[in-house]
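Thread title: Can someone regenerate the structure for this chain?

I was given the following input by a collaborator and told the matching structure tokens would be attached. They weren't. Posting the sequence so someone can regenerate them.
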Amino acid sequence: MGITEKSAEYKYIFGPVLSRRLGISLGVDLVPHKTCTLDCLYCECGKTTDKTLKRAEYVPVDLVKEELKDFLSSGPHLDFITFSGSGEPTLHSGIEEIIKFLKIEYPQYKTALLSNGTLFFMPELRKEILEIDLLKVSIDAGSKENFIKINRPHNELNFLRVIDGLVSLRKGYNKNFLVEFFIMPGINESDGELLKLKKIYNKIKPDSIYLNSIDRPGTKKWIKPASPEVLKRVTECFGKENILPERYLKQHASVPAKAYYKRLLTTIKRRPLTAGEISEMSGINLDDLLIELDNLIKKGEIVKREMPNGIFFVRK
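Best answer:
Regenerated them for you:
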């Protein structure tokens, strides 16, 4: 891929990662670790340490552009460049400038925004992200009570205002629009709650609904994956034709092992990963990779956490 030595110093871009939704995705992280409007029970990045609604230039726009230029200069194969990471990307006041930079300088790449959807009651923000190729927002609650219980929002966020903002966003955004529903068994998958969510989704009119369930270490260890029975009931409620199927891709970005190892901690910090996932997304031999991961464990940089679907490596 022609990764430069500078890649070891990346602070704001990470990966590429292999995403079930997006294929090979280069992440762009625009806020400091766990700066967010919510403190979701299931968040794989851990507990929110700066819960805020303040939009600001949390990381320098020019430095983000420099890192993107450096990484993209060799023309790597990517399915998406994705605004995501360890907090809420729409909190960054310069997101529009970075989107436009990518559209002008690197129009061959599709862009995606993974957002919790809480700030789109702001008309100016809705305008800023209109050039994004794919937009995913999260709606896990059909009621104010569950919004507070599951998402633990900033105390100035109003549930109905958030939903109204998403309805307004959809009216102006005509590209690929996804809603993600994170299933929390025992909290948001009762028939009554699902019907409330269905009404909200019908108002927003997304292109597809993405069902998600815990498969990586989250904030609370008691959260369990959704059973096949629950998944079936949720699918039947929302309509199978509206559910986005997962993509299981085996292709990878062919990143040189030495360069990828240098950036591995940066990626794991934002997304807990299994050894198999890292091997698939990077093309690095699994046996060699396990030796490197074991070295990082011995150095105290990462730890292993066992989940129902595998052993994940998490930054300590």
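The CA atoms of residues 146 and 267 lie 31 Å apart.
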